[in-house]
């Protein structure tokens, strides 16, 4: 990532493999409810005990993956060796001692697949889980189909105006688990792509607030920066994960209206045409389009850019989830690779 005014930028480099280092286990009380458990995919409540696996990712920065206490599986020789153990409540210390006693396998073999590293040239770290494009046979929940097959067989006739039981506004369509705003007034295809995450990058949002108006600009300079890139011939694209749309089965329309409404309000505010891709798949299911997997990018380049290939030297992606300490995930830096 490199800084440019108030925004973080990352060129899209070739695929990189994370270093194989022994992870460090730590415990703390969640400072917010933004982080999702890497095992079950559900949010970790603010103030609740969470366990994290910290390790070095590609690039040398610290990366921590968080789990609910009941979802965490590892054989640790002593609970006292867990970073932050002495700062916990006595009851939680006792609970961790019990947890430590229940598992007898080595840490590398008992953690879920996203803490493993592989040296096979066909298997590399992709953000949240270490799996290849065919899925990891040790994780039956992961997708086993090839994303290339799905994208190669793409047809405009497959686009739908509904996402499951939720109705989409005009111009918005769905394909598989992605909601797409493929056309916008003034939007033009380009070999130069200026791509961005949405929440925590372009705008400020909160998990405690729902609704089309529940957002504000991340920085006052955002509209000016986007207008500048538009004037330079870049096509502006937003790639954003929103698993609540899939997760809120009884309130899916509310989730769709909230997310899409925010995006439409943002586009109106910055006054530039923007293409949008929303990945609705739930974390941990192996969804082909959920960041850090590159499905949304490939869908855009192959089928929503008028046949023009992106110039990877001039294109870039901006995101806030880089896997650093206090980052809610490493999905953005994984996607940028």
Automatic annotation (TrEMBL):
Q: Which GO terms describe its molecular function?
A: ATP-dependent polydeoxyribonucleotide 5'-hydroxyl-kinase activity; double-stranded DNA binding; polynucleotide 3'-phosphatase activity; zinc ion binding
Q: Name one GO biological process term.
A: DNA repair
Cited Pfam families = PNK3P, zf-PARP
Keyword Nucleotide-binding found: no
Where does the record place the PARP-type domain? 25-104
Q: Which InterPro entries match?
A: HAD-like_sf (IPR036412), HAD-SF_hydro_IIIA (IPR006549), HAD_sf (IPR023214), PNK3P (IPR013954), Polynucleotide_phosphatase (IPR006551), Znf_PARP (IPR001510), Znf_PARP_sf (IPR036957)
State the UniProt keywords alphabetically.
Metal-binding, Nucleus, Zinc, Zinc-finger
Q: Which domain of life is it from?
A: Eukaryota
Localization: Nucleus
Is this entry keyworded Protein biosynthesis? no
GO CC terms for this protein? nucleus
Q: What is this protein called?
A: PARP-type domain-containing protein
